[in-house]
Design brief:
- There is one protein chain.
- This protein has 135 residues and is α/β, with parallel strands linked by helices.
- The chain contains four helices and four strands; from the N terminus they run βαβαβαβα.
- It starts with a strand and ends with a helix.
């Protein structure tokens, strides 16, 4: 059995090699990266993806999964941005959601991973809870 950990508990800070080193020192063999732009900028900052890719290339741990983005903005919806919701009844919002998830999946070109964790749909209650939760 592999010991794994998500970067979600550290969502408030930018993902960096030192943080990944801490996870490995804590016993992690595999890691899940939470794809939130303020934490791991999978879409706009190629240097950030390269920095994390270089760390994984050293073989200290494997990237096991990426948690798909829940919001496409840098504030995790706190500024009013809509959630990434592939089950949206609004066709345009569904297409935007798929495009955002595709950007996160493209990380696999530099850092291979086995699974993408995707929540299907967002209820009004979950959205309210998410926005009220400090991050």
């Amino acid at each position: 059995m592999l010991r794994g950990v998500s970067t979600y508990p550290f969502i408030k800070e930018r993902l960096h090699p030192g943080l990944l080193d801490q996870l490995v020192r804590g016993g992690a063999q595999v890691i899940e990266i939470h794809a939130a732009r303020h934490h791991f900028d999978y879409a706009n900052r190629k240097q950030h993806v390269r920095e994390i890719s270089d760390w994984f290339r050293d073989g200290r741990a494997k990237l096991f999964s990426v948690h798909a983005p829940q919001f496409a903005d840098y504030e995790s919806g706190r500024a009013g941005g809509p959630p990434v919701n592939i089950a949206s009844g609004d066709r345009a919002q569904g297409i935007q959601a798929m495009d955002e998830i595709k950007r996160a999946i493209e990380v696999a070109e530099q850092i291979p991973f086995r699974y993408l964790i995707q929540h299907i749909g967002v209820t009004a209650r979950n959205l309210t809870t998410r926005r009220m939760t400090p991050q």
